[in-house]
TrEMBL record:
Belongs to the DprA/Smf family. InterPro entries: DprA (IPR003488), DprA_WH (IPR041614), DrpA_SLOG (IPR057666), WH-like_DNA-bd_sf (IPR036388). Residues 2-143 form the Smf/DprA SLOG domain. It holds the Pfam family WHD_DprA. One of its GO terms (biological process) is DNA-mediated transformation. This is Uncharacterized protein. It comes from the Bacteria. Residues 166-220 form the DprA winged helix domain.
Length: 230
């Protein structure tokens, strides 16, 4: 099994280091020639020689906040399953886990003390149906029944509805979308219609706002500004 992660500090770094000899894929938010974070420069070089580096950005591009939603979607899309090791109640890891669920991937989580705020996100996932993980055997047993993805089918490539290049979203489009949001849940399709924007652009902008903790996704393909919802 190849281990896919985002080359961030902490758990990501440990995951890549532990899997380097067996196979690891690092999905980065900037250009492949940019070392971020700087302390992972040697690790990134090692992965480029012994594993695989993936990015949606051209060479020379510095990582910016708007790049991370695309990075997270690629991480979950490349994987058979996502393991959440540590996550606060509002965490980018939980958004990646949700993306994994939408993409039909398995979701795993390591439980923690209910008194530890860093464990609340993983514990919530387990209560919602994620597979509880105590050792690597739990993951391998769950994945044993999954068939390795086959070659891409003939015909139009799937994923054409994926997120557009984020630079295509203008500041005016972002502001238009923000003005339409409120604490009252609103259907995403209605937002796109009222804003006069392509649904792909709306989804990208909403994912950025979700990662920033500004909006929350709700059942029924609805979103609302974080705070009081009705």
């Amino acid at each position: 099994m190849a281990v896919v992660s985002g080359l961030a500090r902490g758990v990501d770094t440990a995951a890549h280091q532990g899997a380097l000899m067996g196979g690891t894929i690092a999905v980065v938010a900037g250009g492949l020639d940019i070392y971020y974070p700087r302390e992972n420069e040697e690790l990134q070089k090692s992965i480029s020689e012994q594993g695989l580096l993936v990015s949606d950005e051209p060479l020379g591009v510095q990582p910016q906040a708007r790049h991370f939603p695309k990075r997270n979607r690629i991480i979950s899309g490349l994987s058979l399953g996502i393991l959440v090791v540590e996550a606060a109640q509002r965490s980018g890891s939980l958004i990646t886990a949700r993306l994994a669920g939408e993409q039909g991937r398995e979701v795993f989580a390591i439980p923690g003390s209910p008194l530890d705020p860093r464990a609340k996100g993983a514990n919530t996932l387990i209560k919602s149906g994620a597979t509880l993980v105590e050792s690597s055997a739990d993951i391998l047993d769950a994945l044993a029944s999954l068939q390795t993805p086959l070659a891409e089918p003939e015909g139009p490539a799937y994923g054409r509805q994926s997120l557009p290049v984020t630079e295509d979203i203008s500041a005016q489009d972002r502001q238009t979308l923000r003005d339409l949001l409120s604490p009252t849940p609103t259907r995403i399709d209605d937002l796109a219609r009222d804003a006069g924007l392509d649904i792909g652009i709306v989804l990208t902008a909403l994912l950025e706002l979700e990662l920033a903790g500004t909006v929350e996704r709700l059942p029924g393909s609805k979103v609302a500004l974080c705070g009081t919802s009705f």
